[in-house]
Amino acid sequence: MITMIKRTLFLLLLSSAGLASAAQLTDVETRWLTAGSAVLAYAKQELNLPIDITVQPQARASDVPLALGFQDGRCKLVLSMRGNPGAEDILAGLPAEQRPLMIEAMVAHEIGHCWRYAQGVWHALPAGFEQSAQAPAQEQAQALRLTRREEGFADLVALAWTQHRHPQDYAAVAAWMRQVRQPATAGTAGSHGTLAWLQLAPSGAAFDPAQPLFEQAASLWRQGLLREE
Predict the structure, then answer these.
(1) Could you say which of 75, 170, 173, 191 would form a disulfide bridge with 204 (CB–CB 3.0 to 4.6 Å)?
(2) Beta strands 74-79 and 51-55: pairing type?
């Protein structure tokens, strides 16, 4: 099993800057990529998403441990864990046996971003929703709203994936995600204030298993667009 995981990580890292093999990963990086390996394999083998893994040699003060960027038509899953003492703060308080589940959900979230990008619909509304022009003074609020919508979609992908792969653990993952997305100040949604979407999926029964994974998320996402602040 370990050999298979190492091989999977090696294949995923072939196009990664500065790394020749999974053997050069740190223990933390290996643990995160191992936890997310099923999602990454699905993204590359089943969806053929243009995704590469990049490991930052030194994290900056503002870096989150896991993020997704876009460059030259490809998605870049970026790990910023080296020199980042707070890399695993988001997992604080969780039982050790639950941490791989939450990491897997985070990786699925980022794959949700990549899918939107690959479909050419990044920051675009689905059919039937109008995106009105904004005055210059409202541009910042609109940019925040666009980001929040994408985060809402990606959170629903993470939950749909969890229901598909780990239905017995859905409640724990959903509760943790609601906790993470709880706004620091009451009444402020912020760029990652996705509760309008998370509240639509209190249990795995919210997702239709007859639909493809991303359509499961998209169906609820459209409902959430009507509820966002």
Answers:
(1) 170
(2) parallel
